[in-house]
Amino acid sequence: MRSGRALLRSRRTTVSEHQEALDLDLPTEAADSARKSQDYSTRARNPAHAAFRVAAAVAAFHAAFDLPRRAVPSVDVGEDLAQLRVALLQEEVGEFVAATHARDLVGIADALADIVYVAYGTALTYGIDLDLVLTEVHRANMSKLDSRGQPIKRADGKVIKSDRYRPPDVRGALQLQLPLQLD
Question: Are 36 and 111 in contact (CB under 8 A)?
Answer without folding.
Answer: no
